[in-house]
Amino acid sequence: MIDRITVAKSDRQLSVWSDGRKLKTYRIALGRNPVGAKQEEGDMKTPEGYYKIDGRNPHSDYHLALHVSYPSEGDIARAAERGVNAGFDIMIHGIRNGDGWLGGFHRLHDWTAGCIAMTDEEIEELYRVTPDGTPIEIRP
71: cis peptide before it, omega within 30°? Predict the structure, then answer.
């Protein structure tokens, strides 16, 4: 089992850690508007900050999905100050069901609505080793 996940958005990398050791790094795709932190629903940005894996969806439209605890109280407060909804439903997931044949080609451009996308094989592996409650840090 792993004990934390880090995402480096600028490098398009997701790394898994156990006992302070990096075990593996995956190449990922992000939201269609990848620069900067998510600020509101529909901005197509992937959040930045400290969250947890707080659930999973074995019946996802995107093969499998691990739910990220976005928005935090701070995210909600910042959005409310601007009079907007912070957004919700940020996941680490595979490729849309039926399109798994794309494999690694899905990473040629950022395509999600703000989620973190991996190949189906990669999300299967991550799904198996990631317990609910695992911390995830998403960096610019």
Answer: yes
For the segment 69-93, what is each residue's pLDDT rounded down to a tens digit?
A: 999 999 999 999 999 999 999 999 9
State the residue range of the domain holding 20.
4-139
Confidence grade of residue 6 (pLDDT, cut at 50, 70, 90): very high
Residue with tokens 């094989």: 121
CATH at 8: 2.40.440.10
Q: What is the pTM of this model?
A: 0.96
Number of domains in the chain: 1
